[in-house]
Amino acid sequence: MKMKGRSVITYSVYAPTNVTTMLRPRRQDGQSIIQEGFEISPSVPFSEYTDLYGNPCQRAILPAGQVTITTEVQAQVNITKPIPSPVPAYILVGDLPDEVMHYILPSRYCQSDLQEISNLAMQIAGNFVPGYDQVEEIRKWIHQNVKYQYGISDSTTTALDTARNRIGVCRDFTHLAIAMCRSLCIPTRMTVGYLDKLQEMDLHAWFEVYIGNEWYTFDAVQEQTEGYRIEIAHGRDAADVAMVTQYGNATLDSLHVEVELMEPEPAPAQNS
User: Fold this and answer.
1) Helix axis angle, 115-125 relative to 170-183, nearest 10°?
2) Domain identity same for 61 and 103
3) Which end of the chain has the lower number of beta carbons within 10 A, N or C?
4) What domain range includes position 32?
């Protein structure tokens, strides 16, 4: 499926401000980039690098005044992987590959080492088969028990906060899921990008778990994980995948996001 994503971010900049951004899409299996654009207005020089997780990043100094950052991407993407049958097996920690070990450690927003997080995870998923079934139970529980609402959480809200307050947005849903999955020794990472199936269009966050020697997508905001996605970045939590990180005096004025599927979805098969 061809899919298009566009984001327009506007800042009021009060003094020249250094920024790093993660706004260009990843090149990876299941996601072929057809074309993309990245523009800062007024125009300023920028440089690019790749971070520890393989995410493409940009650096620039925004001038004083109103600044707009516009990004566009058109990609050929696969639909979110359906639940496999049989479900993939849980991998013991001793058998995990080295490169995923840091995804079972606690991180800034995902305090998987706290007893309160561990107790909640065991209460929800402790009686299920280790691995995929546990993750799906955690995902469903968050969807059913955490209220989606803007303006309640902020950039300091952690998984523990969300576990207690039961309210937040996609970032908070994802942090809580990551923390509980890691408490069960399941490698879990945060992913951000575009999703076509959102009631309120925004740059979206979901989580991926490593089981059966593959990464699988889960989305606690959705009733069930589905849709087409363009991945921009992934990492341990929001600290690793911030769309814009500023080092100066600037205020975010607006964020406008558009997502479009450029080919019709295939019709479901008819039973004869």
Assistant:
1) 90
2) no
3) C
4) 2-78+243-261
Strand intervals (E) in the chain: 2-13, 17-21, 31-41, 46-50, 56-62, 65-77, 147-148, 167-168, 188-195, 204-211, 214-218, 229-235, 244-247, 250-261
For residue 155, give both structure tokens: 């950039």
36 found inside a domain:
yes
Q: Are residues 150 and 97 in the same domain?
A: yes
Under a CB-based contact definition with an 8 Å cutoff, are residues 11 and 251 in contact?
Answer: yes
- CA-wise closest residue to 188 among 226, 139, 142: 139
pLDDT tens, 52-62? 999 999 999 99
Strand-pair partners of 56 = 50
Q: What is the CATH number for 29?
A: 2.60.40.2250
Residue pLDDT, tens place only, 167-221: 999 999 999 999 999 999 999 999 999 999 777 768 999 999 999 999 999 999 9
Residue 155 shares a structural domain with residue 184: yes
Nearest to 137 by CA among 129, 125, 127, 126: 125
As a whole number of angstroms, the distance between CA 158 and CA 163 comes to 9
Q: Is-contact 234 208, C-beta < 8 A? A: yes
Q: Specify the pTM.
A: 0.93
Q: What is the number of residues in the chain?
A: 272
Buried b (16+ CB within 10 A) or exposed e, 16-39: ebebbbbbbbbeeeebebeebebe
Q: Which residues contact 9 (CB under 8 A, 6 or more apart)?
A: 68, 69, 70, 243, 244, 252, 254, 255
Give yes or no for residue 145 having a pLDDT over 90.
yes
